[in-house]
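ingest -> validate -> predict -> emit
validate: passed (alphabet ok, no gaps, 237 aa)
predict: started
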Amino acid sequence: MYNFINFEGINILPGDRNSIFKYIISRIENDDKLWVITLNALMYMEYIKKTEYHNAVNNSSFSIADGVGIVKLLKKHDIITERYPGIELFKDLCRYSGNKYGIYLLGTGDENLKACSENIRRDFKGNVCGIHNGFFSLEEENSVVEDINRSGADFLFVGMGIPKQEIFILRNFERINTKLFMGVGGSFDVVSGKIKRAPAFFQKTGNEWLYRMLAEPHRFKKLPDLMKFYMNIYLKK
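emit:
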C-alpha cells in the first residue's frame, strides 16, 4: 500500500523518484487504468481557478511534484517529496516500454512529432505505435480517439499544453483503451531536439521556467501567475 496525501483536493503521491516510478510501474503491470499528472506551479494556479481544469486534476489517479515550487509548497504543509520532472518521467516510461508496451504521442506539430517519435525509437528503444498532431477541432476528436484505440497503444502521452491536454484526457478517459494517460506539456518538442532543455544549472536550482521564458519570450505572459504562486508560498502563513 502507498500512502497518498490529499492536498486541497489533489491526490498527491509523495516520495523519492525511484519509489514513485516503481509504484507507477506496479500499477501498469497490474493492468490498472492510470492517469498521472506532473504538477508544476502554473498547473496549480490553473487548478485553483476552479475551472474545468480543476475537475480534471481531481479526476486523475494522482499527481506528483514536477516543479521545485510544488515541492516547496507541499513542504510548507509538512508534505515531503522529491521533485520528479514530467519530462524525466516521460523518458523513463519510454525506456521502460520497450517492446512490451506501445506508445501513442498526441500533440505538437507534425515535424516535431515525427522527430520525437524517431528519437524515442532510437534512444529509448520505445515502441511508438501511433502519433497525431495536437491541432484538431472538437468535431475531429472522435476520429483521434478511434485512431488511438486502433493503434493498440498502452501509454498515451498528450503534449498539448495546459489546460487543453488534461481536459482532453478528462473528456475521453473512459473511451480510450490505454493503460496510462499522462500530459507532458512541451516534452515532445524537447525530445525531438527542436527545443533545448534548460542547462543543468537551471534544472538543479529549479529555474527551468526562467530559462524557457528567456528562450521563448511569449511565455512571459505566464509570469503574473508565477509571481502569485510564490507570493502564496512566502507571504501566507
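The mean pLDDT is 90.
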